[in-house]
Amino acid sequence: PKLRSLKLQHFLYVQHLTRESDSSIRCVARQLGMLPSLRELSMLPANLSGNLRQILCDLQAPLESLELGYCSLVPADLDFL
């Protein structure tokens, strides 16, 4: 719970949202929500276009740094950020 920085590589690649990928995103979101001290998050590659709200929604505090490699953001992602 005291983890401040996390780098995830090749952890989740969502090309088309399916039941399985939706479940995976929710699982990752819950796990991230269990890290109240998290301030820096790096996800490489992170093809999560259109799903940022879903994966970051359980964070307990704002991030100071977010790195999304190879991620095309859509307007809904930018609105969330």
From TrEMBL:
InterPro entries linked: LRRC14/PRAME
Subcellular location: Cytoplasm
Claim: Repeat is one of the keywords in the record: yes
Keyword DNA-binding among record annotations: no
Predominant cellular place of this UniProt entry's protein: cytoplasm
SUPFAM superfamilies: RNI-like (SSF52047)
Cellular component aspect of the GO annotation: cytoplasm
Keywords from the UniProt entry: Cytoplasm, Leucine-rich repeat, Repeat
Source organism superkingdom: Eukaryota
Protein's name according to its UniProt entry: LRC14 protein
Protein species of origin: Rhabdornis inornatus
